[in-house]
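Hello again, I could really use a second opinion on something today. I've been staring at a protein lately and its backbone has me curious. Please have a think about how the structure follows from the sequence. I owe you a coffee for this, so here goes:
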Amino acid sequence: MSNTVSASTTARFTKEQRLLTPAAFREVFDAPERKLHQSHLMAFIRTNTHDTPRVGMAITKRKVPTAVARNLVKRQIREQFRVKASSLENKDIVFIIKNSIKGISNTELKNEINNILKKIEKR
């Protein structure tokens, strides 16, 4: 194996890119600058004072009953955010589930996440 640096090592999902504290979530929920809607997802967006965009997820058991499905949604959001993070501004983004995701395919879920992230990129 060679010791070359690949593009995937530069696009990592680090702890600095996560919303960790309840206070950080509360700031975004209490005074969002924008709310972006898709059929199953919604994102609250607020400008932050950090050097990187940050993401948080509030995936409730009521909307997504099984842990397997909740974790799948979280993995999809983290992965799409990781790929697009370099093109996003310094924003705090919190994703929530509006409607049950029962019956939605992984590609549909990925498309909804990408649509939200594209709208954030444009501004």
Remarks:
- The two ends are 42 Å apart (CA to CA).
- Confidence is low (pLDDT under 50) at residues 1-9.
- Strands lie at 34-37, 41-47, 54-58, 91-97.
- The chain is about 40% helix and 20% strand.
